[in-house]
Structure prediction request, 86 residues.
Amino acid sequence: MASDISYSVYILRCRDATLYTGITNNLEKRIFDHNTTDKGAKYTRYRRPVTLVYHETCENKSAALKREIAIKKMTRLQKERLWTSG
Prediction:
């Protein structure tokens, strides 16, 4: 069964300059959660504020998860090239 829900893979830059990669079906709400609620990732909770530096839309959750894994395997330089070469 096809879903009308699209997913985004995103990269956040944390206050300490580290990067966090995740997926969501509601990017605006997820960034809000990372910055203001306990629903954000434990990793980002102690590194607020976070800033969105990159995102891309995927066809479905499975594709987003695969892309997230691929991005997490990248070096920091490779990740930075995603948003600087576009």
